[in-house]
Amino acid sequence: MSKIIVSVFGPDRPGILATVSRILFEEDCNIEDVTQTILQTEFAGIFIAELPEDKNLEWIEDRLNDALLPTELKATVKHLKAPHQPALYGRQTEPFVITTRGPDRKGLVAAITGVIASFGVNVTNLKGMFRGGDNPYDNMMIYEVDVPTDIDRQAFHQALRQKAESLNLILSLQHRTIFETINRV
Description:
single chain, alpha+beta, four-stranded antiparallel beta sheet
């Protein structure tokens, strides 16, 4: 069996996950991984599934789009290529969480991710809530990152702080287990 990536985007409404998962089930595809979110009023979902030998991705994509047609959603399907070995893989990493709060403005994500990338740190999840204005609690970004153990963490933290200060942001960097413990409800 090969693996496929199914991406579904469009206006949010109840039943999207049920429709996509039903079609994949009916076509004997096993969902191995899924993530979905609502961005303002738009649904965004990505599924990784096993594709049976007797099916092709064009057929799956057509079935999904036929089922989604009344909803104005669009599905695209492509093969998941064999894993490659980015520079980060093979390196020991530890999970951290970076949060930023502050006034909304263009370029915040680009500036912070630029610093993150310059240290060879990989962003594994990103969530942003921008409500506009200057209230720092109305505008927050949460970056989940894998930090290689062989980088200078003090220099990484300092570079992040300097960039955040230049953007009038409040920045926090915590090991993920500490972040989860502190923020447990």
